Amino acid sequence: MSVLVVTGTGTEVGKTVTTAAVAAAALSRGRSVAVLKPAQTGVGPDEPGDAAEVARLAGDVTLRELARYPEPLAPDTAARRAGRPAVRPHEIAEAAEKLAAEHDLVLVEGAGGLLVRFDETGATLADAARLLDAPVLVVAHAGLGTLNATALTAEALRARGLRFPGVVIGSWPADADLASHCNRTDLPEAAGAPLLGAVPERAGALSPADFRAAAPGWLAPRLDGVWDAERFTKEHRTA
């Protein structure tokens, strides 16, 4: 895959750190990587955004941000309130295609969940993925409620004919509760797609060197890593 769209089942699920882990794993394999953030919200003009955080953690990646809005809202709402143009799906697709011409992997990180509105027409990240004919990786929360959110996201992807390689748990708790342990087993069934990794909580607080060294161990081979779902399950058994 030359373009991979990364979405979440909602906000604060570890999407940016997971994107950084995918980037770091690809870089460890000698692949060139670009990161495209179509709409950055809730960040001032001189503040580092999500793409900059991916670069800080992962290393030598090309960054591209199409629009930035100061309020932490959905892109359509944030653009309207800021009096600035919205980002259109065709703009996302065109930017990703240009980056793909010069990089082995382009990661397109969305804002919030799959169907968050990007403009006044109701266009979403799913529309950009369709234009790109790109697979969509879903980042999910570990705890209670994640099965429903993941199933809904998977259903929306399939209804639109989009490819869905699997799910990554974006923040696996150091002291996982019963729901998280059960969800680890049940997520593939809810998603109808494999579990492709689990990024430990607070991974983003690691030093960049430690993050880059550890990232392949959090992701399955399909994402350039060495993580194994069966081994992970055995290591995190619960009664």
Automatic annotation (TrEMBL):
Q: Where is the active site?
A: 37
* Pathway note: Cofactor biosynthesis; biotin biosynthesis; biotin from 7,8-diaminononanoate: step 1/2
Per the record, the GO terms for biological process are:
biotin biosynthetic process
Q: In which residues is Mg(2+) bound? A: 16, 50, 109
State the UniProt keywords alphabetically.
Answer: ATP-binding, Biotin biosynthesis, Cytoplasm, Ligase, Magnesium, Metal-binding, Nucleotide-binding
Pfam families under this entry?
A: AAA_26
The annotated subunit structure for this chain is: Homodimer.
Name of the featured protein: ATP-dependent dethiobiotin synthetase BioD
